[in-house]
């Protein structure tokens, strides 16, 4: 715990508004995290994309946008969204390097952009960056700058920490958590469920094939993040026992997952954490997943089954076994490993270490 309420700046996505229904797991995480920090008595200011919720117990300062000239639009060297995103984070970091920096005790960077890291030395408050992804090219090159980066780092799983270690050394692990009061155990049901962004790397087509093979009806929910992928690869597989429920709000997702027999998690990339795993377990719904990234750190034999990555036959068998597991054991696993309360306390302890270390350095 910290000795006094802290003034915390959260850097969120400049592309996707932090509001329901969430564009993805990162937006959901930041939204719920801000709620939890505020409930713990701290003052939170979030830098987020235009359209983010403002009727909330924290302050939202939209990231800056600008009108690109017609001549600039003719330049094919970079997509428009890349330029707008760079402008947004450059503006925020310049503000934090100026008078606005005195308004905060700590800056917590959840963006996936390189500029907050590259400019961390220019701001007065200490910065911590949560590594929500593997080493992406732009992020890695910022961390590898001569002299290092003036940000501390936290990884969302031991797997992600190992991925980053060759680049920036040992990284503390604080696993993501979910609000166990909001994600309540459901009664279960007969169908399987898949939730998440409908993009190639989330692998929903494997879930559809495995569910049909195992004889389960499958309900799918989430935003269409790649329309071409959805139209060409997902939509043709829908129908019959496979339904797309749409892009749902958190309470609707919670009800859907809680009324399911088993949750499928099918990443085609090394999933850094897998928030949908924690949400399913909190709902009392056992998990059948591909053993990728950080997922094996959460799913054990009492709450789910793992299949080799890409093995649809193995996933089908894992579904049938997982559906027989105890729902109370799944919930207990979430309480032990996926508690938002425990996660927040660990972050607050980390903030306090940073803030008071900074104060000692100044006084010295």
TrEMBL record:
Alphabetical list of Pfam families matching this protein: Glyco_transf_4, Glycos_transf_1
EC number in record: 2.4.-.-
InterPro entries documented for this protein: Glyco_trans_1 (IPR001296), Glyco_trans_4-like_N (IPR028098), Glycosyltransferase_grp1 (IPR050194)
Limits of the Glycosyltransferase subfamily 4-like N-terminal domain: 24-181
Superkingdom per UniProt: Bacteria
Enzyme class label: transferase
Domain Glycosyl transferase family: residue ranges: 192-321
Alphabetized GO MF terms: glycosyltransferase activity
Keywords carried by this UniProt record: Glycosyltransferase, Transferase
Signal peptide: none
Protein name (record): Glycosyltransferase
